[in-house]
Write a structure and sequence with these properties.
The complex is a heterodimer of chains A (195) and B (231). By secondary structure, chain A is mainly alpha-helical. Chain A is built from 5 helices and 2 strands. Chain B has 6 helices and 11 strands. The chains are: A mainly alpha (195), B alpha+beta (231).
């Protein structure tokens, strides 16, 4: 029992990891798709934006829960064979994920709140729970320009997220198939015990 | 309280019937009953033509008429003021729950006709929370500055089998001439009217800024009324 808890992340951490992973991949694909949709597809475009907002806030909340969990529960130790720079890179990537997972929804929230459409388009998470706008944009003269600038930041963060995911997946595959250690198994839903 | 009791006794007398005593009570009461008219009109008015003998009916009606010359009281439970617009290409229909309607309309004397409807713009509902949040805001109805919309029709004319109400429609403080075509069916003391007219919402400044084009929200709005009223 204690052996297993040393070897893997806790079930809560594993569930949160994969749930957030699925949502993030959906957000990246959906975000790019909805952004490129022509305005002639206004109905679909509108619905996708509403869904994107709901998923984004869900990711933010799940990430806060996950961060709280991470800070109160030990992660399994990294393989002793890892070099110092590898450990540093792994830690850096994980911290980077937390930063992006929190920053991206916040910046998205700022886009929505600063938009000139904000008064007319209130956010309802999944059409049910009212989610307020951020209050900082009331008196801004050029809301359209500001909202557009914030949207650019959101986009850059999205590319950073894609880059980090590529690094993260690449590293996991390297650990699994080249180093042949237990790092990927730490986070897999079904434990793979190695002899 | 007295008025209600009076009206109730009149209604009971008429419903109860044919005895001459009852009829005479009704006749004597009918003069002061004009004040009671406003309270529960349905009880007395509906039963009259059905039960009362024809001659008495004429007498009772003529006694009541001068004070209420074809003034109609809208039956709000059966009436609707609706608007149909489109958002991202999809039609939606909403309605106003609160409004006041002063309707004077005698088909035999249209020159005396006057219709004034005052609509509480904050009472608009379209069955979509996101949209219903938006409607009262400054981009749309701006209810803080313009709590009501008014249609004031000072001329009613017969056109073919129906009618047209000519007047001014004021929304967001902007007044425009409007012709509202409607049909009218009067049966005894009850009337039904149906009408519809298309508006360009931007004529009234409904939809400011990015909403002043039809990109997200269509510019055409159809307003439909279904009014049932009694007098």
């Amino acid at each position: 029992m204690s052996h297993q808890s040393q070897d893997r992340y806790t079930s809560v951490a594993i569930i949160l990891h994969w749930l957030i992973a699925l949502l993030v991949i959906g957000q990246l694909a959906g975000g790019i798709y909805m952004h490129k949709l022509p305005d002639t597809d206004a109905a679909l475009k509108f619905e996708l934006y509403q869904l994107h907002k709901s998923s984004g806030i869900t990711i933010l909340l799940l990430t806060l829960v996950r961060l709280g969990w991470r800070l109160t529960h030990k992660a399994p130790p990294l393989p002793a064979a890892m070099a110092g720079w590898e450990i540093l890179a792994a830690r850096g990537a994980h911290v980077g994920f937390y930063i992006l997972l929190i920053a991206m929804p916040l910046v998205g929230w700022a886009i929505v709140s600063s938009s000139p459409l904000a008064d007319s388009v209130q956010t309802y998470l999944f059409g049910v729970i009212h989610w307020p706008h951020l209050p900082f944009f009331e008196g801004v003269a050029d809301r359209k320009g500001l909202s557009h600038d914030i949207a650019e930041i959101h986009e850059y963060l999205g590319f950073a997220m894609i880059g980090l995911i590529a690094l993260h997946v690449g590293a996991a595959l390297k650990h699994q198939f080249i180093n042949r250690d237990t790092v990927l198994a730490h986070m897999l839903p079904i434990a793979r015990r190695r002899a | 309280m007295k008025a209600i009791l009076l009206a109730a006794s009149v209604g009971a007398a008429l419903l109860g019937g044919c005895g001459s005593k009852a009829d005479s009570t009704a006749a004597t009461v009918s003069e002061p009953a004009t004040a009671a008219n406003a309270a529960p009109p349905s009880a007395s008015t509906e039963s009259e033509p059905a039960v009362a003998p024809p001659e008495k009916d004429v007498v009772a009606a003529s006694a009541a008429e001068p004070s209420t010359p074809f003034n109609w009281t809208v039956d709000k439970a059966k009436s609707r003021i609706e608007f149909t617009g489109s958002q991202t290409g999809k039609d939606f229909t909403g309605s106003f729950a609160d409004y006041e309607a002063a309707i004077r309309l005698d088909p035999a004397d249209l020159s005396s006709a006057h219709i004034k409807v005052t609509i509480d713009m904050a009472s608009a509902e379209t069955g979509d929370r996101q949209r219903d949040d938006a409607l009262p805001s400054s981009d749309w109805f701006s209810v803080k500055d313009f709590p009501t919309a008014v249609f004031d029709a000072t001329e009613i004319r017969a056109v073919g089998a129906g009618y047209e109400a000519l007047g001014k429609l004021t929304i967001r403080g902007v007044s425009k001439d409007l012709i509202l075509p409607f049909s009218l069916a009067i049966a005894g003391d009850r009337a039904k009217a149906e009408g519809a007219v298309s508006l360009l919402r931007t004529d009234f400044g409904v939809g400011q800024g990015d909403f002043s084009t039809g990109e997200w929200v269509g510019l055409d709005v159809k307003v439909a009324i279904h009014i049932e009223a009694a007098r």
